[in-house]
Amino acid sequence: MPGDKQQKHRTMAFTLVAIFLIALIMGPGPGSLIINPPGSEPKFWFGMPALYVWAVLWFFVEAAVILVAARILWGKGQDNE
Amino acid sequence: MSDLIILLSNTDLGNTPKIVLVIYLLILLGLGIFGYLKSKGTEEDYYLAGRGQGLLVTSLTIMATFFSGVALLGFPGLVYEHGVSSMFLALNLPVAGAAVYLLGNGIRKLGQARGYVTPGDMIAGYYGGTGIRFVVAVLGILYVLPYIIIQIKAGGMLAQQLFGENMFDFGAAALSLVTLIYVLVGGMRSVAWTDVLQGLLLLSGALLAGFAVIVSLGGVEPFFSKVTELDPKQLTMHDPQESKWNPWWLLTFCLFASLASIVQPAQWMRFYAAKSSKTLRHSAVIFAVVLPACFLFGVMLVGLVGRAVHPPIDPNLALTAENLPEGLNKPDQIAVFMLSEQLPVMLGGLGVILVSIIMVAIMAASMSTADSNLHALGGVITRDFYDRINPNATEKQRAWVGRIVIIITTAIALGIVSLGENTDFGKGLLQTIAQFFFLAMAFSCQLVPTAIDILYIRKGTRNGAIAGMCTGGTVVLATFIFSSEEGIQYIKRLIDLGCLAVTFNVIVFVIVSKLTRRVDRYVKYAILIGETRFQVAENWASHIESFERDLS
């Protein structure tokens, strides 16, 4: 793989890992406290519990990261093995 | 599960569940025979289906093995009990999906290049020595055994519901026998093909459950308007002082619990069995996208609205049978309780068939976990123990030893389950095993640091790996022994047990590896490669280079 492309892939890998970790921290992690911390009044977005919408949102982010990684980074060169 | 039985016995579904169950079991036997007809009689074929499993089989067998009956009963039960915060559990599944490729593909490559069959083969192959193989095998067995016993018990209970109170032993024996037959005759091929059916049932059952409840309440809007009536505590995050459904525990669970289930022996062997990198890449995507969607948009919603439709009498008291609406004895029953109430009214005969399919899906989830673990146990005992005693055994001998292990294990598991049902001693034994069932993932998790070291870092040493895994396992046992201490309980509410033990594991692994690396570098290792042959690596550096070549 040419050096430029390798460097691009490395940058993309770091970016995707960072987004995935952010999704974990914001979703199930302490980020969820922004939405509805213990003892707070429940919020609703689009008629649904805000925490549920929050969980779905970060699930989509995680899924998107994996789709991009699978399409661009993961072993494309090994498909014909 | 026992409460599910009582619940279902109160619901008039006629003979439909029995007919669906019989059809399901006949299809399983058919798939077992199919696996047998395709088999080649070699050890590699028996344990890994000739290392040629394609996308459909690989993706569904990984998903079916990942989830036991807990998926369809426990998840909605947790949401009923703890509210929206427990729905974040589904976000551990994309982590597991990523691990299917990031760990699984390297494991597959090394397995194909070096003829590995069990996790012990790879870890001992890299670090060298028999001691580390035994540690890995024991951690694997601690994961596998409780799972087998608990799933057989679940099968017996389902038979009790369908055929009568006295049919527990008969049911457990009959269901174990069906599982035993297809595992014995067809090995991995039969197990994986039955997993395809069981995986499809699991996914469709999970989605169907959510869809049916939304439709029965009049659509998405009325559904969520009902949810707004929930107690505020059900719609906010929890405090670590009160429960483990707080962001800190959820984050560590999502990071580590999924990895534990991905490196358990049965999954590890599925990676060896996958045909190619492409197979695992696509399987990872399906796992990460489809499985969480089935839970977040399916069965978890049943638990959420179930709490609004059938609330406990006093929400501040424990959710025991006395504090729950009539007919509901435990939160785990909520999915079947709501579906058996709504579907037959909504859809008549078709609704009864759909409830029956969901019931069989619950059983399928249990059976797919039991068969995969039984099959993996056969491989682990044969490769990691029998081979050390009799290194000159032929492939066929080893395949037969594996089969004998599977028969003996099933008989012992069945005996324990039967004792547990009929005697006080057995009840105590079964309770202890059930407690180990909850520790299983924490034990399995201890293989993660060694797997990452072999596949990506390659700086650890054998002594470091052994010390790390033993430390991690000891931490798990220590928290079990001292679980009644207030401090331990608080730590367990704040951090997932697997994560806690892995943290100690990694610290010890790094320190001991640093201290012993210089010695290891110049020691000649006897490396087990393939089945019985031993080759001596020139030195540690060339040994690592050979692994890097196989992984590239």
Layout of secondary structure:
The complex is a heterodimer of chains A (81) and B (552).
Chain A: H1 3-26, H2 32-35, E1 44-45, E2 48-49, H3 50-73
Antiparallel strand pairs in A: 1-2
Helix pairs in contact in A: 1-3
Chain B: H1 2-9, H2 16-38, H3 43-48, H4 55-66, H5 70-82, H6 93-102, H7 104-114, H8 119-127, H9 131-163, H10 168-216, H11 220-227, H12 247-262, H13 265-273, H14 277-309, H15 334-347, H16 349-389, H17 395-422, H18 424-444, H19 448-457, H20 462-481, H21 486-494, H22 497-522, E1 526-529, E2 533-536, H23 540-551
Antiparallel strand pairs in B: 1-2
Helix pairs in contact in B: 1-9, 2-10, 2-16, 4-10, 4-13, 4-14, 4-16, 5-14, 5-16, 6-12, 6-14, 7-13, 8-9, 9-10, 9-16, 9-17, 9-18, 9-20, 10-14, 10-15, 10-16, 10-17, 11-14, 13-16, 15-16, 16-17, 17-18, 18-22, 20-22
Features:
heterodimer, A: 81 residues, mainly alpha, elongated, B: 552 residues, two-stranded antiparallel sheet, 76% helix, globular
How would you describe this structure to a colleague?
The complex is a heterodimer of chains A (81) and B (552). Chain A contains 3 helices and 2 strands; from the N terminus they run H-H-E-E-H. With 81 residues, chain A is mainly α. A two-stranded antiparallel ribbon of chain A has the order 1-2. In chain A, strand 1 and strand 2 form a beta hairpin. The N terminus of chain B is likely disordered. With 552 residues, chain B is mainly α. Chain B has 23 helices and 2 strands. In chain B, a hairpin with a 3-residue loop joins strand 1 and strand 2. Helices cover 76% and strands 1% of the residues of chain B. In chain B, strands 1-2 form a two-stranded antiparallel sheet. Chains A and B meet through helix 1, helix 2, strand 2 and helix 3 of A and helix 6, helix 11, helix 12 and helix 14 of B.
